[in-house]
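Quick one, probably user error.
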């Protein structure tokens, strides 16, 4: 139903009703306090057909968390379509032996100073990385208040990539 409302008679436009619904929805989620602000941009056929910001100025500068994920996912799926890997492939095939399950441990419980781990029971797969089910943390909680694993990342020097190549960071993350 939503797609019908978004589709105009021309494939490079947004229907008037679709535009109104998106605008009303954005205004409502901000007004009801579900989000502090909302900015949405939609392109069709290479043309910008919708651009609105509610709760902030449109030229507001803000950090886009996770903005590279859609681009990376599309690039990976293009490689998948070419047959270069399968979603069930273990990532050790691409990241090296350190990523084999027998070389890894998994957080089970405990605080940052008393972490209990267990042997990793499954290989991390490409699909797990794409669906955020691999168990790898973002490393944002460097003090380990909520997520003790992030504290371990900081102690191991992998909570941030600064000063490292991607290969060095991936190798460190497997430790």
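Nope, works fine. Designed sequence:
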């Amino acid at each position: 139903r939503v797609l019908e409302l978004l589709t105009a008679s021309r494939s490079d436009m947004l229907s008037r009703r679709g535009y109104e619904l998106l605008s009303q929805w954005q205004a409502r989620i901000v007004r009801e306090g579900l989000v502090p602000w909302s900015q949405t941009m939609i392109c069709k056929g290479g043309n910008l057909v919708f651009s609105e910001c509610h709760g902030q100025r449109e030229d507001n500068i803000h950090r886009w968390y996770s903005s590279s994920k859609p681009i990376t996912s599309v690039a990976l799926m293009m490689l998948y379509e070419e047959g270069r890997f399968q979603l069930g492939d273990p990532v050790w095939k691409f990241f090296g032996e350190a990523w084999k399950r027998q070389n890894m441990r998994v957080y089970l419980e405990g605080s940052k100073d008393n972490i209990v781990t267990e042997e990793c029971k499954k290989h991390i797969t490409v699909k797990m990385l794409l669906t955020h089910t691999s168990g790898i943390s973002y490393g944002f909680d460097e003090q380990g208040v909520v997520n003790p694993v992030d504290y371990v990342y900081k102690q191991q020097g992998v909570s941030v990539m600064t000063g490292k190549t991607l290969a060095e960071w991936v190798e460190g993350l497997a430790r």
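Residues 25 and 158 are 40 Å apart (CA to CA).
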